[in-house]
Amino acid sequence: MHIETITENIKSRRSIFPPSYTDQDITIDTIKAILENANYAPTHRRTEPWRFTVMKGEGLVRLAEFLRERYKNNTAPEAFSQARYEAAGEKVLKANCVIAIHMQPHPDQVPEWEEVAAVACAVQNMWLTATAYGIGAYWSSPGFLDEIGAFLNIPMDHKCLGLFYMGYSNAGDLEAKRTPIEDKTTWLI
């Protein structure tokens, strides 16, 4: 394993949004490989709390319809905008795959924050793997995650933590914008 390869992959990972996605298909095998790498995230007490619901094709159409209807049902008639209604599902339909990220907590074994951290590590593994495949991705966490969880029929004891959008992209190389690590590090030596 070469540290340069790992470092380059980490530093080239970006949030790539659906408007820059192409119509190139992400194969089921590629999605499985991405999820397989998610499965190797660190997890305290080996609880492996990450759970995923994969949507492609008709699943994306149903998710887009849900998001549009949610907008319609939660917007006062005088504030309703047909353009916003359409846009509510548009980014889903521009993605080739959307993966709902949810968590099965184990409150009898570990604190919830550790489970959330484990799921975040799993998502980072997904993101890095997608980057290695040349797939753009981003993690969205809208304010109505409980409703998304209900729509997807995830178990009541699970928590929806967001949607992971993926698509091959024409965004090109994007510059990293980070402040120096020295500004964020205290040494006690």
UniProtKB/TrEMBL annotation:
<protein>
    <submittedName>
        <fullName>Nitroreductase</fullName>
    </submittedName>
</protein>
<dbReference type="InterPro" id="IPR026021">
    <property type="entry name" value="YdjA-like"/>
</dbReference>
<feature type="domain" description="Nitroreductase">
    <location>
        <begin position="10"/>
        <end position="168"/>
    </location>
</feature>
<dbReference type="InterPro" id="IPR000415">
    <property type="entry name" value="Nitroreductase-like"/>
</dbReference>
<keyword id="KW-0521">NADP</keyword>
<keyword id="KW-0560">Oxidoreductase</keyword>
<dbReference type="InterPro" id="IPR029479">
    <property type="entry name" value="Nitroreductase"/>
</dbReference>
<keyword id="KW-0285">Flavoprotein</keyword>
<keyword id="KW-0288">FMN</keyword>
<dbReference type="InterPro" id="IPR052530">
    <property type="entry name" value="NAD(P)H_nitroreductase"/>
</dbReference>
<comment type="similarity">
    <text>Belongs to the nitroreductase family.</text>
</comment>
<keyword id="KW-0520">NAD</keyword>
<dbReference type="Pfam" id="PF00881">
    <property type="entry name" value="Nitroreductase"/>
</dbReference>
<dbReference type="GO" id="GO:0016491">
    <property type="term" value="F:oxidoreductase activity"/>
</dbReference>
